[in-house]
Design a protein that fits this description.
Elements lengths: L2 H12 L3 H4 L8 H14 L5 H13 L5 H6 L2 H10 L6 H19 L3 H8 L3 H8 L7 H11 L12 H9 L6 H5 L7 H13 L1 H9 L1
Length: 212
């Protein structure tokens, strides 16, 4: 299979970002950026990504779409929303982390994650460090946020973390961020990164692409 065919299949079959799956219309605005942060927190534990995106939908359906709404919400309401998505084992600790994180975002960046980006001033390590100040988010979570937010923060492109690059290598594709970034228009970098991660999480999808 040619690189062009692999790329076509990757994007058409697996190129939906996790933000899209969670119902987030990602824009460079405070509310959707915060919603992506919530999704990142939910994905930052050992839990199925599908469950995490369902949990995000439940929280947003409950009106918890901004740091102010999250900070002002009752802890039990957050637990209940996570429970409706079967986000088990981590529901209570995550409800606490979401409340604490929302208060930090309000205090440190006045509810606007664009201020975090401005503080970093193009320094990726600084941005990742700030993200890891959010309760529950570690290095993997910081990568999740950066992979997705590059859709609306062009200065981050091309962002492909080690996980995405390893999958690309196994598929016979260029496996550096710069090499992968050249395969698609820059605005499609987030979709390609998501596709590679999805394939890496699915043995069947990886086998199908490698067999073809």
């Amino acid at each position: 299979m040619t690189v062009e065919t692999i790329m076509s299949r990757l994007l058409s079959e697996h190129g939906r970002t996790y933000a899209q799956e969670a119902g987030i219309t990602l824009r460079d605005k405070p509310a959707p950026l915060y919603q992506l942060l919530v999704l990142t927190v939910l994905c930052s534990v050992r839990i199925n990504a599908g469950t995490a995106t369902k949990a995000a939908r439940e929280l947003f359906r409950a009106g918890l779409r901004t740091p102010r709404a999250m900070a002002d919400s009752a802890w039990q309401d957050r637990v209940d929303a996570l429970g409706r998505a079967h986000y088990v084992r981590y529901d209570e600790s995550t409800a606490t982390a979401l409340g604490d994180g929302a208060r930090l975002v309000l205090e440190r960046w006045r509810g606007d994650l664009r201020r975090m980006r401005e503080e970093a001033d193009g320094d990726l390590d600084a941005l990742r460090g700030s993200l890891q100040e959010i309760p529950r988010i570690g290095p993997v979570g910081a990568d999740i946020f950066c992979r997705e937010v590059q859709a609306v923060w062009p200065r981050l492109r091309p962002f492909f973390d080690d996980r995405a690059c390893e999958v690309a290598k196994n598929l016979g594709l260029p496996h550096t961020p710069r090499g992968l970034g050249r395969l698609v228009p820059s605005e499609d970098n987030a979709g390609l990164a998501a596709a590679l991660v999805r394939v890496g999480l699915s043995k069947d999808a990886a086998k199908e692409l490698q067999a073809a």
